[in-house]
Amino acid sequence: MEYRDYYQILGVARGATEKEIRSAFRRKAQEYHPDRNPNDKSAEDKFKELNEAYEVLRDADKRATYDRLGKSYSQWQKSGSPGGGFDFSQWAAGMRGSGGRTAEDLSDLFGSGGFSDFFNILFGGAAAAAAGRQPGRGAGPAWALRGEDQEQAIEITLEEAFSGTQRTLQKGDRRLEVKIPPGARTGTRVRMAGAGGPGQTPGDLFLVVTVKPHPQFRREGDDVHVDLPLDLYTAVLGGEARVPTLAGEVKLNVTPEAQAGKTFRLAGQGMPKLRTPAERGDLYAHVVVRIPTGLSERERQLMAELRDLRL
User: Fold this and answer.
1) Is 280 exposed, middle or buried (0-12, 13-18, 19+ CB in 10 A)?
2) Which CATH class is domain 6-145?
3) What CATH number labels 150-211?
């Protein structure tokens, strides 16, 4: 029986984290999924290999057993393969006293198209538990063990991104309620476990968020920018102004002689941070000076006097 390198099959290092293993599996599984490669036997075989490798490496106990086997197998190879063949039976023996199903009676669970003999010898009892089936129910293809992950685009307003929101989705005969967290931004992925493609273990559904442009506010990461219109007199003499924010207006003391384009920073008045929504970015208010119109004759005279005083 040939040794299977599950790390090589998934394309990850032996020290890979659980997240790296999961990410590699999802990427490769999408590429070789039978639904995307109909009537392609090589793609189906590759997909079976990926499922088998993921079934072992995702589980801490199975992975530990597999890693111990790998070290023993490597030592056997380095010593020149004494005895002509590696004794896999010593590893299988350790799996059989636990009351689990062994390789000899797995055919009624997985059929001829299920896990390899290598897997069945080592993890016969675990395979039955992973499949979640009982003897005699029939097998089905290996790719049905886990459904395909799916994506769906969703649009929200900036106000919804600020406060968090909820959407109701209809998926087949299921009505799904999903919460979009405060601080979501374009590209944020919201995972709905088990709401993806069908399988023995359903895949996940990922909602990919797009935040629609806002007519007043401009978002940059967790910070928000807004124009602050000031009349000429407040800009020159200073005074109080009201600044719009996503949580409502706040008061701002404008210093005298505020130039057009001057920026005031309002700490903590921006967007909630996605991972720590109690924290918020900043708001930047950019001064836009409004020139008065419809001046009376007297106002024109006063403006002229001001101009002459500056000459």
Assistant:
1) buried
2) mainly alpha
3) 2.60.260.20
Distance of CA 45 to the CA centre of its chain: 28
Record the pTM. Answer: 0.54
Residue position matching structure tokens 């990410």: 23
Segments of the chain assigned to CATH 2.60.260.20? 150-211, 218-310
Q: Where are the alpha helices (DSSP H) in the chain?
A: 6-10, 18-32, 41-57, 60-78, 89-96, 107-110, 117-131, 158-163, 232-237, 297-310
CATH superfamily of this structure's domain 218-310: Urease metallochaperone UreE, N-terminal domain (2.60.260.20)
Structure tokens at 300: 């024109």
Burial of 162 (0-12, 13-18, 19+ CB in 10 A): buried
Express each pLDDT in 264-292 by its tens digit.
Answer: 999 999 999 988 989 999 999 999 999 99
Tell me the per-residue pLDDT of 128-146, one tens digit each, with 9 for 90 and over.
Answer: 444 443 333 333 444 446 7
